[in-house]
Amino acid sequence: MSFSERAARLAGIAGWLLGWRPDEFWRATPAELAAVLAAARGEEAPETGVDAGELVRLMDAMPD
User: What is the pLDDT of residues 13-53, one digit of tens each?
Assistant: First the structure.
């Protein structure tokens, strides 16, 4: 399978499972996509949560 075929397949999966639009898929790194898909499958439960300061930082960085 070529890169473009694999990318199209992953873009479809990201759109279907995660609700990502194409621009969201293409802005994500492979590591980010892998982490989100692993979390969606329940494979990598975080050991600790996000504290209030980190949540505010993330909300400021990604206001949408």
Answer: 888 888 899 999 999 998 888 888 888 777 665 566 667 88
**pTM tops 0.85, yes or no:** no
Range of the domain at 18: 3-61
Unique residue bearing structure tokens 């930082």: 57
* Sole residue written with tokens 């400021």: 60
Total structural domains within the chain? 1
